[in-house]
Design goal:
The structure holds 2 protein chains of 2 kinds. By secondary structure, chain A is of the alpha+beta class. Chain A has 7 helices and 4 strands. The two termini of chain A are 37 Å apart. In chain B, strand 1 and strand 2 form a beta hairpin. Chain B is an alpha+beta fold. Classes of the chains: A alpha+beta, B alpha+beta.
């Protein structure tokens, strides 16, 4: 993911500020990463390099820790965030299909952000409303019983031009009525 | 470690330095115990390959030989039904995401997996588990060697030498679970990383993941 103009300076300053609060010891790596993520919303590569240099550990080790834990994200959060639930109930009712619909429409993969930083796509484990499966959390709103058509609807709501429907959704069989009934 | 202790491995009396890990004690005396992640120079073994299980008298369960120090009077068995079962399962799990294409592998004939299979009469074929090999491109950017992640068994030997012997810090483990792999910072190819192409990692790879190019051409 490319950086926006002036972003590098912000990253440098914020990371510097976080590093000052901790002993520069390897065992402080996770708190430092957490601190940086709170400030920046994600872990840019430049930040990880800077942390690695300060802690005198190989940069790949910082990257390894960052990619190991779910709490760290490598891509900036989009202006609008889609969290597709992949909990048991959502998985059984086609959460994967919903995820793929988003991936296709936004041309990004799970965990990524669109280049214009408008949308980011994430998977979450369970949002606690399994009766509404499959669920997508759009920013703060819970979308219930989502179908691929609803994915298009959500994106249209954000004014995104619908991408050319080169592939039709392969999930007609799963759709058993109750479409669009929102709670 | 000046003191020597006498231990018994598979009915053979051995005199080994006190505190020496059973794995090395056995290997030095010509007794083969399967192992992948064990690395003699490293202080703390990862003990992640789960292949070097042995029975030690007095221990309720099999223990990993790479972490068990030799103690005077120890009685060790390298084989038992329980050990064989553990090793078989661990081996199957390892080969379940290792691309088994020995005929086209540069390490064919000099592969640790083949050695283990032969020593323990295990099949280099999956019967119980599904093959889960990811199609990953081979990184052949370095001049003298190439890296095929689909053949990697995640033993960590290359990462250890990279960090501790070559002191480069170009490669490491990233991600978690099924997506875990050895890669570089930002997952760029080796020539775009800090890799100095010293080739130390290639020398220690037990399988065909890191191979020298001339070996691959043979």
């Amino acid at each position: 993911m490319g950086l926006m103009e002036g972003e590098l300076e912000i990253i440098r300053a914020e990371v510097e500020a976080v590093l000052e609060k901790y002993d520069l010891d390897r065992e402080k790596l996770i708190p430092i990463l957490q601190g940086v993520q709170v400030k920046l919303g994600y872990l840019p590569k430049e930040a990880m390099r800077q942390i690695a240099e300060a802690l005198k550990v190989p940069e790949v080790d910082v990257y390894g820790v960052g990619t190991f834990y779910n709490q760290f994200r490598m891509n900036p959060p989009g202006k609008h965030q889609f969290k597709v639930c992949m909990g048991t109930a959502c998985h059984m009712t086609g959460g994967r299909i919903i995820m793929e619909s988003f991936e296709r429409r936004l041309s990004i993969s799970e965990g990524e952000t669109t280049p214009d930083r408008e949308f980011s796509l994430e998977r979450v484990a369970c949002v606690g409303c399994c009766a509404l499966a499959p669920v997508v959390v759009v920013d703060e709103t819970v979308e219930a019983k989502v179908r691929p058509t609803r994915v298009d609807g959500i994106l249209l709501g954000f004014g995104l031009e619908r991408a050319a429907p080169e592939k039709t959704a392969p999930d007609e069989g799963i759709d058993q009525g109750e479409e669009g009934r929102e709670q | 470690m000046s003191r020597k202790v006498t231990i018994t491995i598979d009915d053979r009396q051995l005199t080994v330095p006190e505190g020496e890990k059973l794995l090395w004690a056995a290997l030095d005396n010509g007794l083969y115990i399967p192992h992948l992640c064990g690395f003699r120079e490293s202080e703390r073994p990862a003990a992640g390959c789960r292949l070097c299980f042995v029975e030690v008298e007095g221990h309720p369960n099999p223990v990993t030989a790479c972490t068990e120090p030799a103690v005077e009077g120890m009685v060790v068995m390298t084989r038992s039904p329980r050990v064989d079962r553990l090793v078989r399962t661990a081996f199957e799990l390892i080969i379940s995401n290792h691309r088994l294409d020995c005929a086209n592998c540069a390490k064919n004939g000099d592969c640790e997996l083949q050695r283990i299979a032969k020593a323990r009469k295990l099949k280099l074929k999956l019967t119980r588990l599904r093959q889960l090999v990811k199609e990953t491109p081979v990184d052949d950017s370095p001049q003298s060697f190439s890296y095929d992640a689909s053949r990697c068994v995640l033993c960590g030997r290359c990462v250890w030498v990279d960090h501790n012997k070559a002191k480069v810090g170009a490669i490491g483990f990233i991600r978690r679970g099924i997506s875990r792999k050895v890669s570089t910072f930002g997952e760029v190819c080796l020539t775009d990383s800090r890799c100095t192409q010293c080739g130390e990692c290639v020398k220690v790879c037990p399988v065909g993941a890191l191979t020298f190019k001339e070996a691959a051409d043979k």
